[in-house]
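Students often ask why we bother predicting the structure of a whole assembly rather than each chain alone. The short answer is interfaces. A chain on its own may look different once its partners are present, and contacts between molecules only exist in the joint model. In this exercise we take two input lines together and write out one structure for the complete complex. Read the inputs first and try to guess which parts will touch.
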Amino acid sequence: MTEFNHHNSVAPSAATEKYLLEVRDLSVVFDTAEGTLGVVDNVSLKVQAGRTLGLVGESGSGKSVTCLAALGLLPQRGRVTSGDVMFEGRDLLKLSEAEMSDLRGCKIAMVFQDPMVSLNPVRTIGWQISESLRLHQNLSKGAARRRALELLDLVGIPEANARFGEYPHQFSGGMCQRAMIAMAIACEPSLLIADEPTTALDVTIQAQILELLSQLKTELNMALILITHDLGVIAQVADDVAVIYAGRIVEEAPVLDLFDAPLHHYTQGLMNSLPRVDRKVDRLSTIGGAAPPPQDFVPGCRFAPRCSHCDVSCAGERPEFQNVGGARRVACRHPMTSGG
Amino acid sequence: MTRYILIKILRSTFTLWIVVSAVFLILRASGDPLYSIFSLGTPESTLDVFRAKWGIDKSIFEQYVIYLSDITKGDFGTSFFDGQPAWDLVVERLPKTLLLGGTTFVISVVAGVTLGAIAALKRGTFWDRGIMTAAVASFSMPSYFLALLLILLFSLKLRWLPTSGASTWQHLILPATTLGLTLSGSIARFVRSAMLEVLRQSYMRTARAKGAPKWRQIVWHALPNAAIPTVTVIGFQLGWLIGGSVVIETVFAWPGAGRLFITAIGLRDFAVVQMFILMVASTVIIANLLVDILYGLLDPRISVIGVKK
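Now the answer. The structure tokens for the assembled complex follow.
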């Protein structure tokens, strides 16, 4: 079913083809009563087939909005003002709603933060999983049921047969998230976007769900975008990391490099605030101040007001991305000194 | 299950008893029926004969006890006016009332749900404002006034539809439209707010993320959820529908139980009025019971009958 359209207005360059999904200079604004707010500002992301990209940021940093925009799932008051989203050679932002519907849940699937409210309360779990299959694979009712049972089994829901006919309120949070995942992977997508998939769950369940996602990723050879505010989760499953702050990507790196030596002061701050088992500290370190809401974004580097290394130059122009060797990029005038 | 139904029946019986007693008292307080039925100047001695015959010469308390014990035996009294059993009089006219009420109900639910859903989906647009303005206008206007406007337009001006009677299906159109406009207006408003609530839920985003086409998101994901609060409202409106039909049947000379009721009130025909009220109260109670059951069917989180599904 994959169709590469080489005659598109935006001809895929060699670089594009290397990536399954490439978000280029995506900007998103929200129309509110107070005016238009730019929540995502020229964000670029690349995801290679079969790899996991961790998208880290605080709440309100625009990480979810970026992904929702890419999938055309923005709420009504949000709109994309620039950029393109290349997926398998097509710009998703130029597709019609019908074309996007064919793609969503089939080639690209999404799992949301709060599984208990993301499932329809008046439909059975089995119905909701079968629906994905029937929408995209034209399966008969019986065939969809058989496949849905396999999927329930695959995501580790015991007694699939009995639970098929149950409603979301009869499932625990962890089980709901497993059902959501079963629904998302039903059509074996090449990209799965998981938006804070473990935030609403207990810590022990979190580990199981992450384990499940990693395992499914390998089994189905899909790429994964994992949106989270939790660097611990990133360390556990991501291959590459993009750090987002106030609607802009501030740093990009392979996961090991990032944890070895963060380059952006924001990344460094996030890491310092992680509890560690190998160091005894009385009090966890924090980043002073709070992440600004879009109406308080400052010109220049948006992190500058909270950064201990900022100087006059940071307040002027937006800091450009610097390639720092390998696959590393950082948007800071005074990056932390370390391995390039 | 049995326990649930038993409790329901007990409570309904209690409600009915209150209604029946209140109506009984109010009717007796409203005056002597003899003066409405007989012409002025009829000698008191004659009236006394009839008072004794109809049992209204006894004390109110005695009458009340007799009335209640008769009801339990299935005897709902006799019309003072034409001597027929009240039950027969009401039941005989019931099919016409049900025809009008049923038609109105179906039209209102279909129109109300469709328009309410459209208004919610097109929130803030011309469609939304248009539908909501019409809805507010239709249920704010007294139904008899709306009825007169419709008669003026469709019967007198355009001469398309008959003004009164019930002999053909054309006769049904005006009364059903009058009642239906009012009812669908309020249903549309409730459906709109229920839909708006549902549309912003996370599971609607999940439905989109799955690749469900727009119509499917609405029909299979949104409407079943919006139906839950809507059903309650529609259930309450059933009682209103019967009350409203009393007026409309009179305006359009529709030979139903409602018109009989108005006539009976004018004549202080106790038995008929009591019979009609009893019937209306029972209908409302049954409608509420149905709503309860329907609730459980629509919302798997609620188990009405105490059995976990």
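Check your guess against this: Chain B touches chain A at residues 201-203, 205-214, 216, 220-221, 224-225, 228, 298-301, 309 (CB under 8 Å).
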